Amino acid sequence: MDNVSIPDGTLPFCNNSVDPHAHMPGNSSDLNCTLPSDFHFYAGLYVILPIIYSVICAVGLTGNTAVIYVILKAPKMKTVTNMFILNLAIADDLFTLVLPISIAEHLLNYWPFGEVLCKVILSIDHYNIFSSIYFLTVMSVDRYLVVWATVRSKRMPYRTYRAAKIISLCVWILVILIVMPFTVFAGVFNSNDDRKSCVLSFPIPENLWFKTSRIYTLILGFAIPVSTICILYTMMLYKLRNMKLNSNAKALDKAKKKVTIMVFIVLAVCLFCWTPFHLSTIVALTTDLTTTPLVIGISYFITSLSYANSCLNPFLYAFLDDSFRKAFKKMLECRPA
């Protein structure tokens, strides 16, 4: 969600924030900062952003819907890993589905959709921050357990499709609880010029609440899950290295290796897209940036990069997972009656 105010000369970031996800109105003056002289930059931004968001929306909806369809329809695709991929695709699809509303708000330069939809949209916007990394954390835990069981030549009777469903449900409940504070504070704010904006309206002292929300997001949405993932993959690589030295240990079979590599690459792409977003939080908390065209341009680039993650995963599955590619091709076949 972005509050770009080109027509009447207002700026999207007025609290030295480089995070378009964080909507803190502050006071009325915060929403009516003076537009710098470089009007062409903001006019270009006003046109380019909807195009970028529209491409992300179209590609994301098409790709993630295809992933959901294939996993639900193809019997061979019902595996533990694919259950987590299914939920990841649902989360991405949900976000791209509401992206047109963000585009409409950007073009109209005000929020016309009411209080309830504001809470829904801002909540989904924040689901996007937490859901991807949490499902990837669960997938990393699953990969570690698979490697651990293979090294020790043990079976995993508890690793079932039904168990994956239950775990996925638990992840959704956890994410909903984490996002709940943002849902509570989301609302429609009226500025001095009576323009409505969908923002996070924090109580006094607003600046303290704003910083707390940024730290909250940084810790729960990045620091804890990424640290967990790094530890798991470090231990996984250590076990795989020792497995090569131990002639009695069974090597991972080809299929397991491919799945492990796919999960690792999906994770790497997610970190590539989201790390700048969370680094911007550190910058916002530790520095006092002046609102300049360069800062705003970088801010929207970081936001677009995080949004783009929602449409990249289906292409990774298509390139890295033979079973997904074959199942998708089979679904597209026109069979005679």
From TrEMBL:
<feature type="transmembrane region" description="Helical">
    <location>
        <begin position="259"/>
        <end position="277"/>
    </location>
</feature>
<keyword id="KW-1015">Disulfide bond</keyword>
<feature type="transmembrane region" description="Helical">
    <location>
        <begin position="297"/>
        <end position="320"/>
    </location>
</feature>
<keyword id="KW-0807">Transducer</keyword>
<keyword id="KW-0472">Membrane</keyword>
<dbReference type="InterPro" id="IPR000276">
    <property type="entry name" value="GPCR_Rhodpsn"/>
</dbReference>
<feature type="transmembrane region" description="Helical">
    <location>
        <begin position="129"/>
        <end position="151"/>
    </location>
</feature>
<dbReference type="GO" id="GO:0042923">
    <property type="term" value="F:neuropeptide binding"/>
</dbReference>
<feature type="transmembrane region" description="Helical">
    <location>
        <begin position="45"/>
        <end position="72"/>
    </location>
</feature>
<dbReference type="InterPro" id="IPR017452">
    <property type="entry name" value="GPCR_Rhodpsn_7TM"/>
</dbReference>
<feature type="transmembrane region" description="Helical">
    <location>
        <begin position="163"/>
        <end position="189"/>
    </location>
</feature>
<dbReference type="GO" id="GO:0043005">
    <property type="term" value="C:neuron projection"/>
</dbReference>
<keyword id="KW-0812">Transmembrane</keyword>
<keyword id="KW-0325">Glycoprotein</keyword>
<dbReference type="InterPro" id="IPR009150">
    <property type="entry name" value="Neuropept_B/W_rcpt"/>
</dbReference>
<protein>
    <submittedName>
        <fullName>Neuropeptides B/W receptor type 2-like</fullName>
    </submittedName>
</protein>
<keyword id="KW-1003">Cell membrane</keyword>
<keyword id="KW-0675">Receptor</keyword>
<feature type="transmembrane region" description="Helical">
    <location>
        <begin position="84"/>
        <end position="103"/>
    </location>
</feature>
<feature type="transmembrane region" description="Helical">
    <location>
        <begin position="215"/>
        <end position="238"/>
    </location>
</feature>
<feature type="domain" description="G-protein coupled receptors family 1 profile">
    <location>
        <begin position="63"/>
        <end position="317"/>
    </location>
</feature>
<keyword id="KW-0297">G-protein coupled receptor</keyword>
<dbReference type="GO" id="GO:0008188">
    <property type="term" value="F:neuropeptide receptor activity"/>
</dbReference>
<comment type="similarity">
    <text>Belongs to the G-protein coupled receptor 1 family.</text>
</comment>
<dbReference type="GO" id="GO:0005886">
    <property type="term" value="C:plasma membrane"/>
</dbReference>
<dbReference type="Pfam" id="PF00001">
    <property type="entry name" value="7tm_1"/>
</dbReference>
<keyword id="KW-1133">Transmembrane helix</keyword>
